[in-house]
Amino acid sequence: MKHIFSIIVLAGAMLIVGFSCLSSKKARTEAPDEKTAQVQTIVHDTFILPQIPEMMKDPQERAKYLVMHYWDRFDFADRSLIQRPEITEQAFVDYINILGYVPRENADVSVVYTLQKAAVDTMMYVHFTELFEKYLYDPNSPFRNEEYYLPVLQEMVSSPLLTEEKRSRYGFQQEMSRQNRVGESANDFTYTVSSGQSFRLYDLKSEYTLVMFTNPGCSTCAAVTERLRESAELKDAMALNSPTRTMLTILALVPDSDPEEWKAHLSEIPAQWIYAYDKSGEITKRRLYDIKAFPTLYLLNKEKKVILKDTSIEAVESFFSVR
């Protein structure tokens, strides 16, 4: 897989240092500005990056130009390219990488514009919707990013180029992706512990709460539990817990209502964690959380606002390493 640096070098030695420090103009939802756009010749049976205007020197503006014109030389009408992942899918992966170098508003405009360009051919459009889903929504994708995916979903749920079944599936994904977004309050729920007592998530008095949705007998869950147990960063955070202040609470929650199966795995969870299950099954019934796979991790702050959504162990450790 190509590295983002190689893409930018090929695009004209576009510097990436300092992108986030530079000001950005308000993104527009229409096609690229004709005043700054160059005539980009479509090249068949391959993928060629757009030519960035030489007069464009500002790194931030060059990055914006690249994400808006990235597909200008790609032949969306050529269905044979669907069967050429070394061209189309590789270009798509590189494109997803580049989005991280522009402000969110520009990335949002770009992904929608890309999908609109693909609409020239129904089969190509469907292929691109599948690529967006695979790389931005699939739990196994290293590029998973629901914030980038949401504007794409907005387009897909009403697209006449998709079947009713596909629109319905994307509608469900849209509903779930809008839940528990970073910076927003996490959905509350009731959990039950081994004593039989039940509590609400919002009743936890902790600076940070790491919720791990887990499943008894899941080998991946066991491996993640062990990794979290041995994490130096999490150990350091929990070492700050005291009778008067709790820095970190780890809640291992089984979103299921089978108490016998849940209790059978009680000994596998560290004693200083809270091990609980959803007795009423409200998390599943009310679709409170989008649990695509087990385990799923959420990091919340003191007010139960989402800091990290459906995140990785590495991201959690990185967060606490600078605390």
Overview of the molecule:
The chain is an alpha/beta fold. It folds into two domains: 174 residues, no CATH class; 132 residues, Glutaredoxin, CATH 3.40.30.10. The strands form two sheets. The protein has a five-stranded mixed β-sheet with strand order 5-4-3-6-7, covered by helices on one side. Strands 1-2 form a two-stranded antiparallel sheet. The protein is elongated, with a radius of gyration of 23 Å. It starts with a helix and ends with a helix. The N terminus is likely disordered.
Order of helices and strands: HHHHHHHEEEHHEHEHEEH
How much helical structure, as a percent, in the residues?
A: 25-40%
Structural class: alpha/beta
CA-CA gap between termini = 33 Å
User: Please, what is the average pLDDT?
Assistant: 89
Q: State the helix count.
A: 12
Overall, the morphology is: elongated
Proportion of beta-strand residues: 5-15%
**Low-pLDDT regions:** 1-29
- The total beta strand count reads 7
Count of discrete structural domains: 2
Rg calculated over all Cα atoms: 23 Å
Main β sheet profile: 5 strands, mixed
Spatial strand sequence of the major β-sheet: 5-4-3-6-7
Write a concise synopsis of the structure shown.
By secondary structure, the chain is of the alpha/beta class. The chain has helices at residues 4-10, 59-69, 88-99, 104-118, 122-136, 146-156, 164-177, 219-230, 232-239, 259-263, 282-285, 313-321; strands spanning 190-192, 198-200, 208-213, 248-254, 274-277, 296-300, 306-311. Mean pLDDT is 89; it is low at 1-29.
